[in-house]
Amino acid sequence: MEPRSAAAAGKDFPYTLGTTCYIEVHKDGRVTQGARTDAYQRALAGESRLFAVWPGQWRSDLFAIDDLDEFARAHGIVHDEGRTGLADHVHDVEWALTARESNPRSQYVSIDLRLACGCSVNARRTFAAQMREQRGWDMAVTGGWGRQTDENGTTYTFRVRRRSLSS
Predict the structure, then answer these.
(1) What does DSSP assign to residue 3?
(2) How far apart are CA 167 and CA 164, in angstroms?
(3) How far is residue 50's CA from residue 68's CA, in Å, rounded to a whole number?
(4) pTM for this prediction
(5) Helix (H, G, I), strand (E, B), or coil: what is residue 118?
(6) Which of helix, strand or coil describes residue 144?
(7) H or E stretch at 156
(8) How far apart (Å, rounded) are the C-alpha atoms in residues 128 and 138?
């Protein structure tokens, strides 16, 4: 029986769901696990095939990753503005510590942030990577974050390592 097609699932395929398990089958028969950039590059070059197990409540299904472009966009290997809401440019960022930030010794602080460049944050990991590259910020990518929209636009709340903000 052939595995199901991830491409047939379209945008509904959970490429980045934490419980999706990736399997790489190399031409020499080795089997490895994970969805890293190097696995994508090997699959693109025809040196291996990628598969994913999508766990369900009663059973898990095996899928062939047969749309490598969609896989790369989902994992941020190739920038996808439509998915992330973020243009591939230097963002015009306005930020301040949140009003409730009161511990001057905490390692991470909460900041309120607005993007004056017109972008929106739909993918926190992508935004965190861009801010690390552009401003040297070390943003938390696990835990909560917030978004509030009002007549003045959208304000995002993120946790950022305090000492990275000074650079």
Answers:
(1) P
(2) 6
(3) 9
(4) 0.68
(5) coil
(6) coil
(7) strand 153-161
(8) 7
HEC secondary structure over 29-87: CCEEECCCHHHHHHHHCCCEEEEEEEECCCCEEEEECCCHHHHHHHCCCCCCHHHHCCC
Amino acid at 72: A
37, two tokens = 């950039």
Q: Is 128 helix (H, G, I), strand (E, B) or coil?
A: helix
Q: Which residues contact 51 (CB under 8 A, 6 or more apart)?
A: 3, 22, 23, 24, 25, 62, 63, 64, 65
Place of tokens 């920038």: 79
Name the pairing type of β-strands 4-5 and 48-55: unpaired
Q: How many other β-carbons are positioned within 10 Å of the β-carbon of residue 124?
A: 16
Read off the pLDDT of residues 35-63 as tens digits, 9 standing for 90 and up.
788 999 999 999 999 999 988 778 888 99
Segment 56-112, tens digit of pLDDT: 778 888 999 999 988 888 887 887 788 888 888 999 999 999 988 888 888 999 999
